Request: fold
Amino acid sequence: MTRCTVLVPVAALLLAAGCRGAPDVGASAQAGNVSVSRAVAWTMAEIGSATVGFELDVARGADTLVAVSSSAGRAGLHGTKGAGGMHELASLPLEPGRTMIDGRSVHVMVEELAADIPVGGTLPLELRFARAGAVHLDVPVLRFSEALTALGR
Reply:
């Protein structure tokens, strides 16, 4: 393959992605003043869990993410503490603007998956906000590296 044939497909991908850092993939939904976008998941089949990341955009006024749930398993909102430890969060206050839930510090974990969800499958997820109400998402399951790219990491 010559250098020219490699650059043309790469240039086409950049144009298709709008020259942004992260491609537009993942589930999206809106409830009230809260938009959810780029929702993607990756699984850890060996421990029967999935991690979900997404972007939240609160258009006006503050809101709070008060609950997460999934029919696929036990869902919880987690934060990190110390050297790699996690703890469950009761809620997540959100100021107007964008907030990334990207798996680094704050993330959604779905544990005790009822069944293995393969790459290409979807994970049902509900996010409940104090003011905006609930949004339901069918979150695509990607490979770990693809999910990180989708989240702009």
